[in-house]
């Protein structure tokens, strides 16, 4: 059984969805503009945490940092590499869901769609109830 799991893992690692996701991650992580945005965002978050932990923290500075962080997050979301990363992650997640659904259907467990089962098995994908 472990050998079959290993084969499944290797098949997933060689799937187009996984390969695309890994390529998108590398492109995202190696992009200088993205790295600069992430560094600035993390620095501001660290400063915000410090201010919020201080009993005499500067409320105006906390608001300013929060606004800056929101602005930086929006800039990050506008980056096409971010979009690509999210879409490739979603595609691979769909593959994993389909694999888990197939395994669960075979052992009689709930699948991602069987939770909505009405009990009418016409056209059922196989929740095995």
Say how many strands there are.
0
How would you spell out the order of helices and strands? Answer: HHHHH
Report the mean per-residue pLDDT as an integer: 90
CATH topology-level name: YheA-like fold
Cα-atom radius of gyration: 22 Å
- CATH-scheme architecture: Up-down Bundle
CATH superfamily: YheA/YmcA-like
Structural class label:
mainly alpha
DSSP helical segment count = 5
Sheet of most strands: none
CATH class: Mainly Alpha
The domain tally reads 1
List segments where confidence is low: pLDDT < 50 over at least 5 consecutive residues: none
Instruction: Please estimate the helix content.
Output: over 70%
Query: Multimeric state of these chains?
Result: single chain
| Dominant shape | elongated
Distance between the termini: 25 Å
Strand content: under 5%
In a few lines, what is going on in this structure?
The protein has helices at 2-13, 16-30, 32-53, 59-78, 80-107. The protein has 129 residues and is mostly helical.
How would you summarize the topology of this molecule?
Layout: H1 2-13, H2 16-30, H3 32-53, H4 59-78, H5 80-107
Care to describe what's here?
The protein has a single domain, classed as YheA-like fold (Up-down Bundle). Helix 2 runs antiparallel to helix 5 and helix 3 (32-53) packs antiparallel against helix 4. The model has no long low-confidence stretch (mean pLDDT 90). The chain is mainly α and 129 residues long. The protein starts with a helix and ends in a 22-residue tail after the last helix. It has helices at residues 2-13, 16-30, 32-53, 59-78, 80-107. It contains 5 helices and no strands.
